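Hey, can you fold this one?
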Amino acid sequence: MGEGANEAEAKLGRGLFSMVFSGLNTSEVKEGEESESFWGSFEGGRTEYSSVKDTGVPAGFEPRLFHASNSQGYFHVEEVPHFT
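Sure. Predicted structure:
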């Protein structure tokens, strides 16, 4: 369970896991509390990984929307101004 996960993300993760690995015995482990055997199952074991938790939008950020299409035989991208 990722340290920054909210309850909706946790519920989605549990649901996806049960769909993909139905019938297996599972246990939930919080990020940072993984056992050495957990990390040993990955090639190279435990290594550094991104731990950025702040996914907030910076102050003053102006979102932009783009329309992308290849319907005319080439890839065209156009910004959509003043969207809501």
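Residues 24 and 78 are 48 Å apart (CA to CA). Let me know if you want another pass with a different chain boundary.
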